[in-house]
Amino acid sequence: MNLRLPLCSAVRSTASSNRSSVVARGLLAAACIAGALALAGCAGQKRAPSPEAAAKQARLDQALALFSTNPPDGLPSGWEPLVLTRKKKTTEYQLIGDAGRTVLRAYADQASSGLRHEVNIDVNKKPWLTWSWKTSALIPGADNTQRETEDSPVRIVLAFDGDHDKLSLMDTILFDTAKLLTGHDLPYATLMYIWENKAPVGTVIANNRTGRIQMMVAESGPAHVGQWVQYQRNVAEDYEKVFGEKPGRLIGVGVLTDTDNTLQKVEAWYGDIRLLREADGGE
């Protein structure tokens, strides 16, 4: 999922020195990554919904992603493509039937893109994230601790709001650069749950360009390949562990299957994604 966009060449040609050029390219690449993951960047520009639409959205927010309520074929209602860069092939996503329920299928062939959905949820009140996924295989050579091999067959992507005044100088420059390039405000923080080849479950892996994007290993190794696996994580606790503060509101959720760095193929499936008040599933 490492991004290198053609816009970086403009920075290279205008930099006043080798050092400033490297810094600028790094900032721009990070801005491109964060911009692509700005799951709710346009929310403030939308027309106010009707009461009926608002009620429907509230139900969707509580569930996050009930793929099973959609008919097979096409994309889930309310979800949009999450394209990381136009220079790379996009992952194919489609709702399909699986053992009597509807799930989201992903197929990546040297590809990297996802799907995203805007929400507005206080995860301090509903902290328990549950989801299921399945992958056909591990991605040969994938290692999310290395920029050149940063791929995963399945990812759950969560975008959070927060106090931008707390950002470091470098992150402030990154956010300003990304807004200049994309026209959107970036999420204050992005947390991903991933399936890693080797890193142990619970390992936290920082994005190589910005600490505002962090990955947590939810599954590791081949033991459950080819099986549906169910997960339950306390997002509020995980966020505090990773970012060192309590989370702001959850403003976006996404899924991402990518094989662009390893140039491999993989097929994967996502089940329903929910947020619950209690770990036992009670609302």
Structural topology:
Blueprint: H1 8-14, H2 18-36, H3 51-63, E1 80-83, E2 92-98, E3 101-109, E4 112-121, E5 128-135, E6 155-160, H4 169-182, E7 189-196, E8 204-206, E9 213-220, E10 229-234, H5 235-243, E11 250-258, E12 265-270, E13 274-276
Parallel strand pairs: 7-9
Antiparallel strand pairs: 1-4, 2-3, 3-12, 4-11, 5-10, 5-12, 5-13, 6-7, 6-11, 8-9
Helix pairs in contact: 1-2, 2-4
Describe it.
It is a single chain. It is built from five helices and 13 strands. It is an alpha+beta fold and 283 residues long. The chain has a single domain, classed as Sandwich (Jelly Rolls), CATH 2.60.120. It has a seven-stranded mixed sheet with strand order 1-4-11-6-7-9-8. Strands 2, 3, 5, 10, 12 and 13 form a six-stranded antiparallel sheet that branches. Helix 1 packs antiparallel against helix 2 and helix 2 packs across helix 4. It is globular. InterPro entries: DUF3047. It comes from Herbaspirillum frisingense. This is DUF3047 domain-containing protein.
What attributes characterize this protein structure?
5 helices, disordered N terminus, Jelly Rolls, alpha+beta, DUF3047 domain-containing protein, six-stranded antiparallel sheet, globular, DUF3047, 283 residues, 13 strands
